[in-house]
Amino acid sequence: MKLKTIDDLKIGQQAEYSKMISREDVIQFAELTGDMNPLHLDEEYAAGTMFGKPLVHGAMLSGLISAVLGMKLPGPGALYASQELKYLKPVFIGDTVTAFVEVKEILKDNNRVIFRTGCTNQSRELVAEGISLLLPSKQQ
Predict the structure, then answer these.
(1) pLDDT in tens, 32-64
(2) Which residues touch 83 (CB under 8 Å, ≥6 apart)?
C-alpha cells in the first residue's frame, strides 16, 4: 500500500467506511473502554429513556471515522491530531453507520490537512459531523 503524503491529497477528496453495529460490538466496546453505562447495555433501563432502546456509544462513531482516516484517506502513517464531533441523532444496535471524510483544507507549510468528517445511518441521515486535523505521512 502506497502511503499518501500531503502532495497526494486534493481538496474535495473523499473516502468512507460502513459497518453494521451489532450488540456484540457494543458489548466489546464497553468492555474495552470501561463505559458500562446502562443506556448502552441494559435494554430494560434504556426502554425507560427517551430513546426507548439501547444506544451505540458516540465514541464508536469517532472510532469509525478514525478507521477511514487511518486506513483510507490519508491512510497509514498519518497522525490524527484532533477531532471535533457533534452527535446529531441517536444510533441504535443494528444500524449501519457509514463514516466519511473529505479533504477541506491543505496546509502544506505545516504538513497539516483539515477534513470534514461525519457519519450517516442506513437512511443516509447525518448522525454526527465535525472536523479533524491530521498530519499525513512524510514517507512515500
Answers:
(1) 999 999 999 999 999 999 999 999 999 999 999
(2) 62, 65, 66, 117, 130, 131, 132, 133
Do 102 and 69 touch, CB atoms closer than 8 A? no
For cell 468528517, the residue is 117
- Single-letter code of the amino acid located at 88: L
CA 16 to chain centre: 9
Q: Which cell numbers in the block locate residue 101?
A: 471524510
Encoded amino acid at 14, one letter: Q
Residue ranges in 82-133 assigned as alpha helix (H): none
pTM flag (> 0.85): yes
Tell me which residue of 136, 78, 67, 137 sits closest to 101, measured CA to CA: 67
